[in-house]
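$ fold --in a.seq
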Amino acid sequence: MDFSPLKAALADVVAIPVTPFAEDGSIDVANHRALTRRLLDGGVRIVTPNGNTGEFYALTPDEQRLVTELTVEEAAGRATVLVGVGHDVPAAVAAAEHAARAGAAMVMVHQPVHPYVAQEGWIDYHRAIAEAVPELGVVPYIRNPLLAGDRLAALADSCPNVIGVKYAVPDAARFGAFARDAGLERFVWVAGLAELYAPSYFATGATGFTSGLVNVAPAVSLDMLEALRAGDYVAAMKVWERIRRFEELRAEEQSANNVTVVKEALSVLGLCRREVRAPSRVLPEERRTEVAEQIAAWAL
């Protein structure tokens, strides 16, 4: 298969949408559709339902399938859909197969959560998923700094649909080395730690970055992408300075507030309830005020 169109789609702002909840705690279907349309209307061209900002690990399998289906329906003809899958191998394979039936183009494989991960076992895990959906592009989500680049290359040798990487180790030098050991031109490299890391990762080989902030301000994220594509790091860092505190709030306490800050901002804008599911939490009052101040300065 020719995966070049999917590779081109990955080299972009990869939006990680939130999952809005209704007052009774269920997924708010109408609001999910509205938030997805807002992203698309804002210029987003690739979306990842069931990502971490979408509270993947707090959703039931039925809810994960619902989120996938809603996103594919809204994105049809407007954006590429990259579905997050994970958990045990049978669950991840079933989710990937569902994504294919639903009409998604790619799957992102969440970092395995088991505490004992061998590098060869990492290959086996991803191979099982990739072989189950040979027609889909497969994007491993890498957060393990100990994984060697040649292991990714070995995976792609047997699974040519492994076409990109969401790299989320907070070390630009490590990323640069890993990408070159795996094959810089062989894969699409997506900076998996969002806008604050995007400039340094672009400088060492990335051509796309993930974003949760894009839920709140699509134009801001796209402004950074435009600057990075042009090699204008001065302009990119101007955007970086605007959003720095917002992203720092999300990163507090080992990213405990990653989702809650985004949902709080959407709540301030009247677009989404602030509620999240355990093990996340609603922001304390003083942080809510700071989030409101941050987005007010963006003149949305």
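$ fold --in b.seq
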Amino acid sequence: MVALPSGPAPTHRSDREKLFRATPRLWRALMRVDRAVIALTGRLVITGDVPDELRGQPLLMAANHIGNLDPLVLIAACRERRISPRFVATGGLFDAPVTGSIMRAGRHVRADRGKASAAEALGKVVNALTEDANPVLVYPEGRLTLEPNMWPERGKTGVARMALAAGTPVVPISQWGAHEAMCYGMVRVESARDLWILFSSWLRAIVRRPTMRVHFGAPVDLSDLAADRVGDAARARDRIMRAITEGLIPLRIDEPEMPLHQDPTRPVTDKPSPWLSR
């Protein structure tokens, strides 16, 4: 477990539960279904936590992105810690008949790519942070990592800008093992065959039962940085990505270089992670 930062006295466990119960019923029900799916898929191991004094106020959580099953794994881990995460998602998910209802019920945050400026998208997230007590979970890398050994990529400054603009803490989340539960597949699912490739890899995982590890790290200190100061967004991004990487190292202690599980469908770049000490 990580050390909790100093601050106001933490809330009681009952207060934590009260905050979780304030989540819309449909989203809580779907989180229970999600936990059952992850339990069927493999073993979930969770370490660390979100400090009680950060609950019930604007909060960003930033996680590394390693596989298609990441969201389900992170939702299950958050549920175990009595957290109801909200994801930043593309407008297409909100416009679809079924997923749209789910996204709206969970109070997730819509970000229309190509339809709104970066400033407008940032404003939506900042507003969402201040209008709801549940944290917003984002992937700083912006995509599944294509780093040769699956370490975090450089990442973008979007998450850092959100945190600095809203003046909100950032809790780094490191995860490992979800990549074994479903293959990378293809960039876009365009046919039933594409879906079968993903689904069949998940069925094989049910037999293998991989261990999926999630670690909630200590909040990243951004108190000396400002949203309107040149270069601070990049500095904040660097601190967040380093914190995620540091939390990831002990999760894959037996796989410091190339992952033991090899996915032939996953493309790779020639750019190594900048966050490892070399």
